[in-house]
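Each field is listed here:
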Amino acid sequence: MQIDLNSDLGEGFGPWAMGDDAAILGCVTSANIACGGHASDPDTMVATLLLAQAKGVRVGAHPGYADPLGFGRRVIPMTDAQIERMVAVQIGALMGAAAVAGVQVAYVKAHGALANLAAANRGVADAIARATRAVSRDLALLAISGTELEAAAEAAGLTSFSEVFADRAYQANGQLVPRDQPGAMITDASAATQRLLHLLDAGEMPVLGGGYVKLRAQSICVHGDSPHAVAMAQSIRQGLAAAGVKLAAFV
């Protein structure tokens, strides 16, 4: 069995750093790099791209609401057309930085509130898919498993890959439990690893409050901005390897 391990990185700004990107890049196989919306700037983008390249990690664009104060975790009222333009411009920004760095951008993964909204709202999902296709039809779309964004990618003729989250709890409909609800975040690395192994074996993810939801998984996300991010990523990598699961980039 083979699966990708990804993380959201390059989320600092100027002299302010978010998380330990170098340590996380030693664990993951794909890096979702912020594009200047919820976080990042040209220097941070290029530095993160070069660091990922040195570690042999594939990179993707990580666009989100242009809301650095809320870290892209608040829904900003926008039309679908505005979202399409915003996402396209952010993807283009990272691809410009990548051209300078000599690194290829392989995919797009929406961030935070934008990704969660696209999971349930087909109009928003279609806007993200259109933006991705407009910038380059060669870009794949990494989408939360079983959501509207997966369907939108397929309808747009894009290659898509299904993502699950190591450190987030799930609802019965396959969507993530909102961060402001109790139990939304999983901080126990051993528990996170065990439920991922169950998912890979049985094709189902435990649901907060009991039961399971069927999900397809081609990539696992470990958030890079939490205090336990490095320990979580290391534990999951080791746990998957011990179970005979090969880690490799999905694209």
